[in-house]
């Protein structure tokens, strides 16, 4: 029997507000343990939460960017469980009246446009961090992260493959990045993802038993874990076993999921309305004001790129998927470059570089004006295509303007015909056999001689002119 | 007036003497220390007396300008109010050794008015109880009869005011914890409207019901103390941004024409002496020119059940933070694989007393999956009905009158083994917390055994001024508040 995977994702996004969700403590990443705490976020006896209005506003931004309906009345609830990183025994979250509901996200998967439903997005507070490796016999707790605002974005179970799940995350991250409300950084934990996956026979409407996978530390891990789970569940079903509803952990080293807890072991969170916070009435005017201030979305930007810069839909899509990439592109155009070559460099060599390094565009030091300089150096004939590719990599690795790199390293293309003729004469003389082969009609011999000539000029010879000089030399010598 | 009788005076008499300099804070403190030395060991109104701290405060006050509505006036603080640098234990072992690193908002306000702060008045553990017998550190006795309880949970505060071990006190009231001990000890106790006084720094019992309020020797003092602590606080999202009227001026307003609502209540378990005293109070009000209206509060009989669902649910959640991780009591360490779970179990089992454990269990149960709708959700619906009962009543009257308690102070140990009987001692007080309305208890008579009887007045939200106005008129017309227990200063 053929099975169809049904996937839904839960994304937790840390909002990078200056202060925490319910107190005035700072939220800077990497501060000394417990240096960003106060009686309220340590939840000492007698303390009370006060909602950070900025977090509410940013939460609304996220909801609206995901085309959700903002609740006219929103309330918080207590989600109760015991754990040392949760200093009051409950997390203030939202249960049945979330900030935002029923939205959607347009993605393209395998070249096909799809709309993935957004079930809900709600505000909640982050927990602290347990440190197990700082002390011989004790675990320590750092409460700096306690109370940092989170928005949890729950998709509908609309995703049908690990690739779609991956694309959903890429598109979601792009939308979130554009809002400027989070660093969206998986390594620092400002963006986290849990995946729910079940299988059902193709054609069946009802869902199968759902498995939740946690500990997914990258988009790639999400994809791999889903691939693993689909294989594991398919095999189990084919062998006639039943899938049990459970939570499993992804092991990124062993590339497999392992059971964490079954449904029976799942906690009863005993949700109830948070009595320390009154329900919040969000009036239409406020929603409209936030909506009016929403920045351009990746989708809108792509359309603008297509229209304004005559880019193909594909190019515009790729360039706007990452906000940093789109900013580089537009920055370079503003500094005087023309669209097509910049697009080619960004989508070609830059993308290849990032891919090889496993880096995101925003982590690379790159001034858009450097792209303009590079293009100018090519246009002036200072750099050959080949040289430009090398300089481009150097520019990224050293974080340096190509104009300076060229000057410092004397990287000037050789276009002096006399000099090129001398090089050609030397090369032909040094490789008589190849010269003869060429004259006998073996075209590949020229390629070899070209290679030798470029080697001798350290790649600086203008390839076209060098080739012509060699041909001339070979003809003359015959 | 003899030098050693200042503590017998209400705050509104004491404060002018201090402000004018005819009396020094140091003299007040010395008298207080002497009285505490002779009476606190037997009464246990306070869990500890910090002599140095009190003298240091008196000294600091003497260096300041003699200003503030409460300049030099000793105010007892219930042990669930956070006072920076001092122990705050809620009379519980689980908070043993916990020193609050910050001041409750009410403390900040008392300090700003120059009050002399006297921590820590005894209470039922986490305010769970009606007798102060549930304190982990020993029970408080009733100043009128040491074989009886002072009521609870603010029993220490009420006993201290009645026995002249302070000028006034702050307590907290979740289901009657200010008014019931005020009635048992023959003093005035006021539970303000929910949201009138900031809860920031009050260790939570049930967040949607808790309010801090004054316990005082007379109505004017209640008005004075309320005027200091009332008002919006940005640190408490449930505190109301409603203007605070001048409560002291309100006292003088004529009461003639005010409408007094008298509800038909079940008289099951109501002591006939209390019934008579309350009926006499109604007649007194009539003589004062109030117009008596018979009103109905049809959902009141469900108040106790609803209260014990909502209050325990919230309490079970609010007390989850006492887990031995960050502060307070932690049971002995162990290192086997379930060490964390074990620490939770043994810390909480050994740290909480039986009543706290009972309420945590009850509250956990009513919030559990499958029971939430039947208990908590239904409880909240009935709560709304009770609130609506009062809304309707206050269309027909300005003040509602009923007894504060069904009986006068009961004997120590009498109800300790029967929690249901204990819970029923709050039968008349609970509805004000559920409805969020202000309510005041004041003396209105004495039983044959010379035990005080309390009269309860209730008003619409934020109508504390009307409540105080009516109470003051009654107090002016009667002498009950002048009667003092033998232990007090004569």
Properties at a glance:
heterodimer, A: 478 residues, alpha+beta, Arc Repressor Mutant, subunit A, 3 domains, 9-stranded mixed beta sheet, 16 strands, B: 490 residues, alpha/beta, Amidase signature (AS) enzymes
Provide structural commentary.
The complex is a heterodimer of chains A (478) and B (490). Chain A has 478 residues and is an alpha+beta fold. Chain A is 41% helix and 20% strand. Chain A folds into 3 domains: 3-289, no CATH class; 297-400, no CATH class; 417-476, Orthogonal Bundle (Arc Repressor Mutant, subunit A). In chain A, the strands form 4 sheets. In chain A, strands 2-6-7-10-1-11-12-13-14 form a 9-stranded mixed sheet. Chain A has a 3-stranded antiparallel sheet with strand order 5-4-15, with no helix packed on it. In chain A, strands 3-16 form a two-stranded antiparallel sheet. In chain A, 41% of the residues are buried. Chain B is α/β, with parallel strands linked by helices. Chain B has a domain at 3-253 and 471-482: Alpha-Beta Complex (Amidase signature (AS) enzymes), CATH 3.90.1300.10. Chain B has 16 helices and 10 strands. Chain B is globular, with a radius of gyration of 21 Å. Chain B starts with 10 loop residues before the first helix and ends in a 13-residue tail after the last helix. The interface between A and B is large, with 29 and 43 residues.
């Amino acid at each position: 029997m053929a099975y169809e995977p049904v996937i839904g994702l839960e994304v937790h996004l840390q909002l990078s507000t200056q202060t925490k969700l319910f107190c005035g403590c700072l939220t800077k990443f990497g501060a000394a343990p417990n240096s960003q705490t106060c009686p309220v976020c340590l939840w000492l006896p007698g303390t009370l939460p006060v909602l950070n209005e900025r977090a509410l506003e940013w939460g609304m931004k996220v909801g609206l960017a995901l085309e959700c309906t903002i609740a006219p009345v929103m309330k918080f609830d207590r989600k109760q469980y015991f754990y040392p990183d949760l200093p009051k025994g409950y997390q203030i979250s939202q249960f049945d009246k979330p900030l935002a509901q029923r939205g959607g996200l347009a993605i393209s998967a395998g070249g096909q446009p799809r709309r993935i439903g957004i079930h809900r997005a709600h505000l909640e507070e982050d927990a602290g961090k347990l440190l197990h490796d700082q002390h011989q016999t004790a675990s320590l707790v750092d409460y700096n992260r306690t109370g940092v605002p989170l928005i949890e974005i729950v998709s509908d179970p609309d995703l049908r493959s690990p690739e779609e799940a991956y694309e959903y995350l890429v598109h979601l991250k792009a939308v979130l990045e554009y809002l400027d409300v989070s660093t969206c950084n998986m390594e620092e934990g400002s963006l986290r993802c849990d995946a729910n996956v079940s299988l059902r026979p193709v054609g069946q409407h009802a869902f199968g038993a759902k498995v939740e996978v946690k500990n997914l530390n990258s988009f790639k891990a999400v994809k791999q874990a889903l691939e693993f789970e689909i294989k594991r569940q398919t095999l189990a079903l084919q062998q006639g076993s039943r899938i049990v509803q459970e939570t499993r952990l992804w092991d990124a080293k062993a590339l497999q999921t392992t059971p964490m807890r079954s449904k029976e072991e799942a906690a009863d969170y005993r949700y109830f309305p948070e009595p320390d916070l009154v329900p919040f009435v969000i009036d239409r005017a406020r929603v409209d004001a936030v909506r009016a201030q929403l920045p351009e979305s990746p989708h809108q930007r792509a359309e603008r790129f297509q229209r304004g810069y005559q880019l193909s839909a594909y190019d515009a899509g790729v360039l706007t998927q990452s906000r940093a990439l789109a900013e580089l592109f537009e920055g370079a155009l503003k500094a005087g470059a023309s669209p097509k070559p910049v697009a080619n460099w960004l989508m070609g060599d830059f993308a290849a570089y990032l891919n090889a390094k496993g880096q995101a565009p925003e982590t690379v030091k790159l001034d858009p004006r450097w792209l303009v300089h590079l293009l100018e150096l090519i246009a002036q004939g200072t750099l050959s295509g080949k040289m430009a590719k090398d300089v481009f990599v150097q520019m990224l690795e050293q974080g340096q303007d190509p104009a300076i790199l060229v000057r410092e390293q004397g990287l000037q293309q050789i276009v002096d015909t006399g000099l090129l003729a001398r090089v050609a004469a030397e090369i032909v003389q040094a490789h008589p056999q190849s010269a003869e082969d060429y004259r006998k009609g073996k075209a590949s011999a020229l390629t070899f001689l070209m290679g030798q000539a470029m080697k001798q000029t350290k790649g600086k010879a203008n390839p076209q002119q060098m080739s012509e000089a060699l041909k001339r030399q070979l003809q003359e010598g015959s | 007036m003899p030098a050693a009788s200042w503590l017998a005076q209400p705050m509104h008499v004491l404060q002018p003497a201090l402000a004018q300099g005819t009396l020094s804070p140091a003299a007040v403190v010395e008298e207080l220390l002497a009285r505490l030395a002779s009476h606190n060991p037997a009464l246990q109104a306070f869990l500890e007396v910090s002599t140095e701290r009190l003298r240091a405060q008196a000294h600091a006050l003497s260096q300041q300008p003699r200003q503030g509505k409460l300049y030099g006036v000793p105010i007892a603080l219930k042990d669930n109010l956070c006072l920076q640098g001092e122990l705050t234990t809620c009379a519980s072992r689980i908070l043993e050794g916990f020193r609050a690193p910050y001041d409750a908002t009410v403390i900040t306000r008392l300090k700003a008015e120059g009050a002399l702060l006297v921590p820590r008045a005894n209470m039922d553990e986490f305010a769970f109880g009606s007798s102060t017998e549930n304190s982990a550190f020993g029970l408080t006795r009733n100043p009128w009869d040491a074989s009886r309880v002072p009521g609870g949970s603010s029993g220490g505060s009420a006993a201290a005011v009645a026995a002249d071990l302070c000028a006034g006190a702050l307590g907290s009231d979740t289901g009657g914890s200010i008014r019931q001990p005020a009635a048992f000890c023959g003093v005035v106790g006021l539970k303000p409207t929910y949201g009138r006084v900031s809860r920031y720094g009050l260790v939570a019992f049930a967040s949607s019901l808790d309010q801090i309020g004054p316990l005082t020797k007379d109505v004017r003092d209640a008005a004075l103390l309320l005027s200091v602590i009332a008002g919006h606080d940005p640190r408490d999202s449930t505190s109301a941004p409603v203007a605070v009227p001048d409560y002291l001026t309100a006292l003088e307003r004529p009461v003639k024409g005010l409408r007094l609502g008298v509800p038909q209540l079940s008289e099951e378990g109501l002591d006939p002496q209390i019934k008579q005293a309350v009926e006499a109070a109604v007649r007194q009000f009539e003589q004062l020119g109030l117009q008596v209206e018979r009103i109905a509060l049809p959902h009141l009989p469900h108040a106790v059940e609803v209260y014990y669902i909502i209050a325990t649910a919230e309490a079970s959640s609010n007390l989850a933070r006492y887990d031995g991780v960050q502060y307070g009591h932690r049971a002995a360490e162990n290192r086997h694989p379930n060490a964390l779970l074990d620490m939770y179990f043994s810390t909480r089992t050994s740290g909480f007393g039986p009543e706290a454990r009972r309420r945590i269990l009850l509250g956990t149960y009513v919030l559990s999956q499958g029971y939430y709708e039947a208990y908590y959700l239904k409880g909240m619906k009935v709560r709304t009905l009770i609130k609506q009962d009062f809304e309707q009543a206050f269309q027909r009257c300005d003040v509602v009158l009923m007894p504060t308690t069904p009986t006068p102070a009961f004997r120590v140990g009498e109800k300790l083994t029967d929690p249901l009987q204990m819970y029923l001692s709050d039968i008349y007080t609970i509805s004000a917390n559920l409805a969020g309305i202000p309510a005041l208890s004041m003396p209105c008579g004495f039983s044959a055994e010379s035990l005080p009887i309390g009269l309860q007045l209730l008003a619409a939200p934020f109508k504390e001024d009307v409540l105080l106005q009516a109470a003051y008129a009654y107090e002016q017309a009667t002498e009950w508040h002048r009667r003092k227990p033998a232990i007090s200063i004569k």
